[in-house]
User: What shape does this take?
Amino acid sequence: MSKANFITITAANCPASSRSAAESDMAHFAGECKENGALRITYGSVISGRYPGALVFIQFFDSLAGLESVMEMMPVSSSYKRLIEEHAVVPFGRNVFRGKSIDFDPVLEPQPNYLMLTRARRHALEENEMLDLLNMTTPVFKSAGAQTMRMGQTLTGSDLGTYMLGVTYPDMSSIERAYDGLGTNPAFVQLMNGLDVDMRSITKIAGIL
Assistant: This one.
């Protein structure tokens, strides 16, 4: 999988009655984004956390030129127009993150079904210390069944400077196993003591392209 130097996360409100149709058009829109510079796209709807029911659209880029190309494409995208005009999708947040290095071998087949997003701010750790500790926990995530693991620091949007960790899983049991294992992991305990976590949510993945 190509290295993602930049990540964007867009969140949007959507009426429950049009969510299925909206996810179908998100698939079409994801194809257009990939044709115009995105390396990979993950999309779905939040099932737990701060914004239950919200749609989430995540794009990975090797440079901000790819993001610029996608933004220029959006006004002429028929699928994006349907999302806004026909399905009453209303974006309420878009953040751009700079990707951070995590030593984790991704598995995308079969497609992951759940994405856990965790947002935190450093208070007692330097960034290199935080990343070293996080990399020490990756075997716990992997053994529990986690399929991908990404981290980025917020460059634009809300909560500037915070870090977002995204981990995908095949099922809820894998999430449970991961956090049971992490609870007794010394590196994870030290990591949590040096961070302020203010958000954790689970998204049901509708598609990955």
Remarks:
- The helical segments are 19-35, 64-73, 78-85, 127-144, 172-182, 186-193.
- The CA atoms of residues 46 and 203 lie 4 Å apart.
- The chain is about 35% helix and 35% strand.
- The two ends are 12 Å apart (CA to CA).
